[in-house]
Write a structure and sequence with these properties.
The complex is a heterodimer of chains A (350) and B (389).
Chain A: E1 2-4, H1 7-17, E2 24-26, H2 32-38, E3 44-47, H3 54-64, E4 67-70, H4 81-86, E5 90-92, H5 101-110, E6 115-126, H6 133-143, E7 151-154, E8 157-160, E9 168-171, E10 178-183, H7 188-195, E11 200-206, H8 209-220, E12 229-231, E13 234-236, H9 238-248, E14 259-270, E15 273-282, H10 293-312, E16 319-320, H11 323-326, H12 329-338, E17 342-349
Parallel strand pairs in A: 1-2, 3-4, 4-5, 5-16, 6-11
Antiparallel strand pairs in A: 6-14, 7-8, 9-10, 10-11, 12-13, 14-15, 15-17
Chain B: E1 2-6, H1 13-22, E2 28-33, H2 36-46, E3 51-55, H3 61-67, E4 73-76, H4 83-93, E5 97-99, H5 105-111, H6 114-120, E6 123-125, H7 134-143, E7 148-158, H8 172-180, E8 184-187, E9 190-193, E10 201-205, E11 210-216, H9 221-228, E12 236-241, H10 248-262, E13 268-270, E14 273-275, H11 277-285, H12 292-296, E15 308-318, E16 321-331, H13 336-350, E17 357-359, H14 361-364, H15 367-376, E18 380-387
Parallel strand pairs in B: 1-2, 1-4, 2-3, 4-5, 5-6, 6-17, 7-12
Antiparallel strand pairs in B: 7-15, 8-9, 10-11, 11-12, 13-14, 15-16, 16-18
Helix pairs in contact in B: 1-13, 3-4
Classes of the chains: A alpha/beta (350), B alpha/beta (389).
């Protein structure tokens, strides 16, 4: 069932796919009661909505007695954990590329160690800045100096950092290649210290160079500023106006390379010896994988796999849980491989 | 003598006002600006009894023409978009006119007003910012001493600011235009458009500038010099600058905004308000300019950190012998000649030293006394002649 505000777009999609099992229903995510009416009777609810809707979807799933998952992680979602357990349900926030595949990668490395010292997550989200309004909001939020969740964890303590701090280079191979990354506010630094008992966790990331330049330019020229000013008689601020103008610019909808690079390095001990397990993903180049879809599939495919694993009973855990506590990485990676996303690992004894 | 400085409260106009106020030939300098507050800041800083402030809106034709009444010359220091409008007002008021440049295409349109100005007995000298302006007169100096001219190569070298200095060196809209509009060069006797930020070459300037990376930019010198010296057989003319006096890193950032559509002139609706992306970008960046008091103050450090040399290399022949004139005008403050050169032109216009009509600098102003006046203000011009031994 495709639940969508824009019913015409949903029907168009169904027509394109041409599978009689798929149906569409008109749905307004701002109407909580409509979720309660719509969700019952389904085995799993997948939310592809912008992250601000995730707490309401989680709440509605628990209230309606339906399992669920989404692609982001909001702190309010954990408050439904006890109620989900009580109802023998599972809801997994963040089952995309990152969070999502990265959490399974981390869990896979952790499973092979006696002690885990540090998890370093690196991503390259190769997409244009504004493929959709929500994704532009996310992009700008990740580099906004006022974003409060940009931190890394060292010795169990949070260290707040600013945008474009912690610069380093990471080789993502393939079309993405070597890119400069910086600290990005991401859910893994919030969930993994607790869920995996790791004292050192960091997430670095990047977008295509042109998009990174845009964010850097906005930062250096104060274009994230939320100080109100009057422009043509209307009170606005630089940040809001930039968002609106970027949304309307056709040039924010294009970028030459689409794809997703993920590289994890996990440091720890096995049998008393220090080791590093490095994991990375590979997927077909965009020319062979649907152009722009080479980016989107990295988020949508794991989301679909997660839903199918829940429906099949591959996921036994109950409650509202991060992916690393719910998803068996081996099954998950096998399913990804079938769909073109391969996860590789390399162990180095230090 | 009363000189009317339109946009006299602006970043370049205020330097003209400062220069005119110090000039013994000038009795009165009117800061004519829509921004009265800034005009008062300039007047207060300069503290000269010659200076007065007048609120002028260039879009109010009648008021503008009336404001010009009694002026002996009008120096237009506003952004070049207003040049044609300002010239029409001067023509109506019968006031001689000068400006700081018309970025090639506007200059060409302005020159078309020649016959009307000539008939009305009104004189106008265009393009008198430091560049265009100084290179035109440098070329004239060389042309007066050559039988033929092969090429005119202009290099505007500015000591680069620190990479993290976000300030624009002059009018933000003009710099944005220079970044996106294709520069025109005169090549093999034809005007040819080239890609923006192309034609890089290193050029050696007088110390403390040294070697700087120069690139093509759209400029008015190229619009007029090959035409003015057509009889000497000019085949090549270009204008090169090093990132418009800004840090390369800052220019790249402006390019980033342009790449994402902020050069767009088509209005878009934002919450019921019509917003032109380019106007919004310019308005957001307009704060990143030197303050008026910085511009009017003497250099803070020695050697000065805003040194600039305007060089014109004229390759030609005299009596069959190949000769290169390298004309170099060195200043300790980048904006100084931009304000001073049009101030000199305004005074000369007021003195009646230019015939009625509309002229580019090279056909209107005598180089030697012009360079002498620049020298009196600490802006030194040197001519280096190279020929075979």
């Amino acid at each position: 069932m495709v639940a969508e505000y824009n019913l015409d777009a949903a029907n168009e999609l169904i027509k394109d796919i041409g599978d009689p099992r798929i149906k569409a229903v008109q749905f307004d995510a701002n109407d909580y009661d409509s979720m309660l009416k719509l969700f019952p009777g389904h085995d799993v609810v997948i939310s592809g909505l912008p992250c601000e809707y995730d707490p309401a979807v989680t709440k509605a799933c628990v209230e309606a007695g339906v399992n669920g998952l989404d692609v982001a992680t909001e702190e309010d979602q954990w408050s439904y954990d006890a109620a989900a357990k009580e109802k023998d349900l599972v809801y997994i926030p963040g089952v995309g590329a990152t969070p999502g595949i990265t959490n399974a990668m981390a869990k896979h490395a952790v499973n092979q160690m006696d002690e885990v010292d540090e998890i370093q997550i690196n991503f390259a989200a190769f997409r244009c800045p504004a493929p959709a309004p929500g994704l532009l909001v996310t992009f700008l939020w990740e580099f906004n100096p006022k974003t409060e969740t940009r931190f890394y964890v060292k010795n169990g303590k949070k260290h707040m950092v600013g945008p474009f701090e912690g610069l380093k280079k990471v080789d993502y191979k393939g079309e993405i290649g070597v890119q400069e990354v910086c600290y990005i506010p991401h859910p893994e630094t919030r969930t993994m210290p607790k869920s995996l008992g790791v004292k050192n966790v960091s997430v670095h990331g990047c977008f295509p160079p042109q998009a990174m330049n845009l964010a850097k330019t906005m930062l250096e020229w104060g274009l994230f500023d939320e100080e109100p000013f009057t422009y043509k008689g209307v009170e606005t601020n630089a940040c809001d106006m930039m968002l609106e103008l970027l949304l309307r610019s056709p040039r924010t909808k294009e970028t030459p390379v689409w794809g997703y690079g993920l590289v994890l390095e996990v440091f720890g001990k096995k049998d008393g010896k220090d080791l590093k397990i490095k994991l990375w993903n590979e997927h077909p180049p965009m020319a062979e994988w649907g152009g722009k879809a080479a980016y989107y599939k990295n988020i949508a495919v794991p989301l679909s796999i997660g839903a199918q694993m829940i429906a099949r009973g591959d996921i036994k855990a109950r409650g509202v849980l991060p992916p690393e506590l719910a998803i068996d990485p081996v099954i998950f990676f096998d399913e990804l491989k079938i769909r073109g996303i391969e996860v590789f690992e390399e162990t180095e004894w230090l | 003598m009363r000189i009317f400085v339109l946009g006299g409260a602006g970043k370049m106009g205020c330097i003209s006002v400062q220069d005119l106020a110090k000039d013994d030939r000038v009795d009165e300098v009117v800061i004519a600006d829509i921004d009265v507050e800034s005009a008062k800041t300039v007047a207060d800083y300069l503290d000269s009894p010659k200076i007065s402030v007048q609120e002028v809106d260039i879009h109010d034709d009648e008021g503008f023409v009336k404001a010009l009444d009694g002026a002996d010359a009008c120096l237009n220091a506003t952004v070049y978009y207003t040049n044609l409008q300002a010239m029409e007002a001067c023509l109506k008021a019968g006031v001689p006119y000068t400006d700081m440049g018309g970025l090639f295409y506007t200059t060409r349109k302005q020159l078309e007003l020649h016959d009307r100005f000539e008939s009305a007995g009104v004189s106008a000298v265009l393009c008198m910012g430091s560049a265009p302006g100084v290179p035109n007169i440098q070329t004239r100096y060389a042309a007066d001493r050559l039988d033929t001219i092969e090429s005119i190569k202009i290099f505007d070298g500015i000591k680069p600011p620190a990479p993290d200095d976000p300030r624009f060196s002059y009018a933000v809209p003009t710099i944005v235009d220079e970044l996106i509009v294709e520069p025109v060069v005169f090549e093999d006797g034809e005007f040819v458009a080239k890609p923006p930020l192309s034609g890089f070459e290193d050029y050696w300037f007088t110390q403390p500038l040294g070697l700087l990376p120069m690139h093509l930019s759209l400029h008015s010198e190229v619009a007029t010099l090959p035409v003015s010296f057509n009889d000497k057989g000019v085949k090549e003319c270009f204008f090169k600058i090093n990132y418009w006096g800004m840090a390369k890193e800052m220019v790249e950032k402006v390019r980033v905004l342009i790449e994402f559509g902020f050069d767009g002139r088509e209005p878009v609706e934002v919450d019921g308000t019509s917003v032109v992306p380019r106007e919004f970008m310019v308005s957001m960046l307009s704060g990143y300019v030197h303050s008026i008091t910085d511009l009017l103050a003497p250099p803070k450090s020695q050697p000065p950190d805003w040194t600039k040399e305007i060089v014109t290399e004229v390759h030609g022949t005299k009596d069959g012998e190949e000769i290169i004139y390298r004309m170099g005008t060195l200043t300790c403050k980048g904006a100084l000649p931009t304000g001073v050169a049009p101030a000199i032109a305004a005074v000369w216009l007021a003195e009646g030293r230019v015939d009625p009509g509309v002229y580019p600098p090279e056909t209107a102003l005598d180089p030697v006394p012009f360079f002498k006046e620049l020298e009196q203000r600490g802006i030194i011009t040197q001519a280096t002649v190279t020929k075979k031994v």
